[in-house]
Amino acid sequence: MQPIIIVHGGAGDIPESRINGKLEGVKEAVRVGYKILSSGGSALDSVEAAVVSMENDEYFNAGYGSVLNVRGEVEMEASIMCGKNLDVGAVTLIRDFKHPISIAHKVLTDSPHSLLGGEGAKIFALDKGFETVPPESLISENAKHALESSKNEFGRTEIGVKGDVG
Amino acid sequence: TVGAVAIDSNGHIAVATSTGGMSGKAVGRIGDTPQIGSGTYADDQVGGVSTTGHGESILKCCVAHSIIKYMGGGKDASTATTLAIQEMTKRLNNTAGAITLSKSGDVGVYFSSNRMAWAYVKNNKIYYGIDHDQTLVTDL
């Protein structure tokens, strides 16, 4: 089987000023993921590595550069799934960690559960050796500006209708 | 949101999705990304999908699993991805996008939003884009 990897870096009303950074970021992510596949690595390790690459990049809404909640805080979530046996791992309401996708991968491999949230996810991550980072280290200038904009246009998509947010 | 779908040399499929959610969201809000079948799905017998866009709409329509079901019913990856995203957008009037691989390595990329950044590697080339009907190519 010829290995293949595809990535996305988010959908929305992306401004011109962010296009080049987004394109460079997705190209780097597929290079990172494909390197693992081409050396005989697993699809699971490949997708984790590709997502970690984008979690490190402030051009993407994940990890460093995540958008902010109404209190100006980063709260992240991630999931990973293995098509061989339908194993899944996911985390939500996770703060103060650089790579939620890596914690999700640990939930898949090292937990009898599928989705851990909030304090429980933090306890699990610390138990598995993940280290916390200062909350402000995950916040980018672009995320601060986006929060200010969202106060006037919360839930808006390009169609122009207020989103029904659950 | 970011996501990745891969098939390895053993034919195994995996999908990963990660996000900070939506700007200005309520404390404690959970979107589609961690909910299997909404933001992420993988099945070696069919394919894999990662989604992005308006989370509340994506989870109401279980978009990732909808795409898988379309492919299981015989649709190719591109058609399945397009159908599921268009249906969600028509029904709920919000936008989203998805990337898809079939078990045979066929690619699906579709978004109803103005833009979505995407890229894939095939035959030592990187294919990528961000605008509708745009496919750029560069060497790996």
What does this structure look like?
The complex is a heterodimer of chains A (166) and B (140). Chain A contains five helices and four strands, in the order E-H-H-E-E-H-E-H-H. Chain A has helices at 16-38, 43-55, 100-110, 118-127, 141-153, and strands at residues 4-12, 76-82, 87-94, 115-117. A three-stranded mixed β-sheet of chain A has the order 2-3-4. In chain A, helix 3 (100-110) links the parallel strand 3 (87-94) and strand 4 (115-117). The longest helix of chain A has 23 residues, at 16-38. Chain A starts with a strand and ends in a 13-residue tail after the last helix. With 140 residues, chain B is of the alpha+beta class. In chain B, the strands form three sheets. In chain B, strands 3-4-5-6 form a four-stranded antiparallel β-sheet, covered by helices on one side. In chain B, strands 7-8-9 form a three-stranded antiparallel β-sheet, with no helix packed on it. In chain B, strands 1-2 form a two-stranded antiparallel sheet. The longest helix of chain B is centred in the middle third of the chain and has 16 residues, at 77-92. Chain B is globular, with a radius of gyration of 14 Å. The interface between A and B is large, with 91 and 84 residues.
Distance between the termini of chain A: 41 Å
Uncertain stretches of chain B: none
Strand order in the sheet with the most strands of chain B: 3-4-5-6
Straight-line distance between termini of chain B: 24 Å
Strand order of the largest sheet of chain A: 2-3-4
Tell me the helix content of chain B.
10-25%
Number of helices of chain A: 5
What oligomeric state do the depicted chains represent?
heterodimer
Beta content of chain A comes to 15-25%
Helix and strand composition category of chain B: alpha+beta
Q: Tell me the radius of gyration of chain B.
A: 14 Å
**How much of the residues of chain B is beta strand, in percent?**
35-45%
Average pLDDT, all residues of chain A:
93
- Give the topology string of chain B: H per helix, E per strand: EEEEHHHEEEEE
| Sheet with most strands of chain A | 3 strands, mixed
Mean pLDDT of chain B: 97
